[in-house]
Design goal:
- With about 80 residues, this protein is mostly helical.
- The protein is built from 2 helices and no strands.
Length: about 80
């Protein structure tokens, strides 16, 4: 145990040393490989659509502040009463 602790402590004490890797060690990532099927659930698709619509609305509002000289767009069917 003490030898293993000394070895691990040496990793932290001298991080500039090259990492020793066993040639027989290998691994495979099944989630981010190029041939992995695309996976997207319904919740994340709905959330992505919501975020994109929010971003489009924010872009439109930011344009109002960037270009105040543009004419105001008003819907012809919009109406309201002024009671005062």
């Amino acid at each position: 145990d003490a030898a293993e602790l000394k070895k691990v402590a040496d990793w932290y004490l001298h991080p500039e040393k090259p990492v020793e890797v066993d040639a027989t060690a290998c691994g495979r990532n099944y989630f981010t490989r190029a041939s992995a099927p695309e996976y997207e659930d319904e919740d994340s698709m709905d959330e992505r659509d919501q975020v994109l619509s929010d971003a489009a609305e924010l872009k439109k509002v930011a344009d109002w502040y960037l270009h105040p000289e543009k004419p105001v767009e008003v819907d012809a069917t919009a109406c309201g009463r002024n009671y005062f």
